[in-house]
Amino acid sequence: MGRRIYLEDIPLEEAWARFLRALAEAGLDGPFPGERVPLDQALGRITAEPIWARLSVPPYPAAAMDGFALRAQDTIGATETQPRVLPVCPADGGEGACYVDTGDPLPPWADAVVPVEQVQFDAESPEQATRITLYQPVAPWANVRPVAEDIAAAELVLPANHRLRPVDLGVIAACGYAEVCVRRPPRVAILPTGTELIPPEQAAARGVRPGEIIEFNSLVLAAQIREWGGLPTRFPILPDDFERLLEATREAARAHDLVLINAGSSAGREDFTARVVATLGTLLVHGVAVRPGHPVILGMLQVDGRSVPAIGVPGFPVSAALTGEIFVEPLLARWLGRPPHRRPRLSAVLTRKLLSPLGDEEWVRVTVGRVGERHVAAPLSRGAGVLSSLVRADGILRIPRFVEGYDQGQVVSIELYTRPEEIEGTLLAIGSHDMALDLMAQFLAERYPGRRLQSANAGSLGGLIALRRGECHLAGSHLLDPESGEYNLPYIQRYLAGMSVVVVTLAHREQGLIVARGNPKGIQDLHDLTRPDVRFVNRQRGAGTRILLDYHLQRLGIAPGSISGYDREELTHLAVAAAVASGRADVGLGIRAAAAAMGLDFIPMTFERYDLVIPLAFYEDPTFQPVRELLQDARFRAAVAALPGYDVREMGREVTRFA
pLDDT confidence of 94, banded at 50, 70, 90? Predict the structure, then answer.
């Protein structure tokens, strides 16, 4: 019997509709019942029932300030020339005035409080006074908090399905409660699967061997669930074995409200999740028209007479995290009696064209900044395995099904991960990748809270074009002009003609050939790239490193077509080094620091100048001052100088201005 392939392509709305129908049939489509917890453990929990005041607040007439309680009628006629003198009496006395502190109950015979600073008394302290002198009358009930001024007994204090804030805990206590009834948190089991997986602790202790993958998706999913109000349980890693996965899923369903099976959700030889769900219950959905996250599984398990929903979570990190956002968070919200999270939105101009598959809804990660009077959104890597793109993302751009994509310059709606006020403090750099920019981002975050540097790698030419279109604050560039041998300036004159910009040197850095440790292929120079046994990895078109390579190839008379891998492109120096380190390529052109970071050997070729190109108006704006200060900062200079192959002697030097 052949393998059965379940994978479908169901629209997201239809997938949710199937899931909700199954939840409703099982009685699992509404909020969970409540449980009572002490107030000091209730922060962030959701109320399961309305809270009605047991006590009035305040429960008695109380002094609103320090002073003397008295009868207002006894002060009638008091003036500067004809003051009233009242004896001080005990609270149960009733003749004259009684000293009270703020919050003290008002004596039953009194109907007002005169502040202590508005009277004279015959002692060193008001507590020792035997009589007081008043120079103005006091109105009835002045400076008195009446019963139930704040809350009346039996009044609704908080409704059901309310997330408890710190101030809410205080008002609940003031109304006479020590506990509160809140929704029971959903219990969520997370089952990581894959024979190739190893736990982070093992990887930290002995490193990662070929064929092994560090399992961290369950960490991300568990943190998401905890943030959304659930109680996660991470199960030990399971090998790709149907019977063991079946038994672990059955065990998880017995003690949890939701089971997440991470990986094995596709239709490969060792993808058992769909079969497990179908064996233990009903497979509702296998494959949703969403990218990343296409091979999602939705189902209902039947274990020991209980219905338990199950979600097969794709193994790629971005797909796993977004599956949590798309399916797990709304389900937990439903069970907790709160609305699903709604991120703030803003409109932004897209910095480059995006094409999208017609049949899928695509979630594209973007970084966002305000440049001038508008926000701009720069797309990040779209790969389902590129978790760093979620870390760097300020938000998500959704491209609906049957939309081919968006054009460069189009205004799009972004769902924000980052708070809007942080976006306002973001400096957006587009252009050539450089490790010194990463250090700059770190130093800015340390030294200037509220300031961020976000980078989008588009190559040096891409950075200049982004500057011309007003899509970034600065561009990193190291473009060598073949005719003059000058860096950057000829290109700026060509691409930024008519713009007022400042060119400032960040550093000089060493470029060369990155090869495996020990240089097993014996590569010496660019001529070796044409050998049939050598696989090359290149940078993208428009990158300064690509232009540098083409310049030297032309000088040496080497045809690009003679190099195996010339058309294989990576976006950063570190990505080139990673390709060599993994054995996917034998050699690439890049900076010495990237080779050192990956433990690779390096064959030097040249030193180049890496500049920052900054619009003059922004360069002189106070918001850019932190960057200017960093370029002169000894600690920052030392940190960049510590990168292999970097020379910072000209850091911060203004090369030229174009008016």
Answer: confident
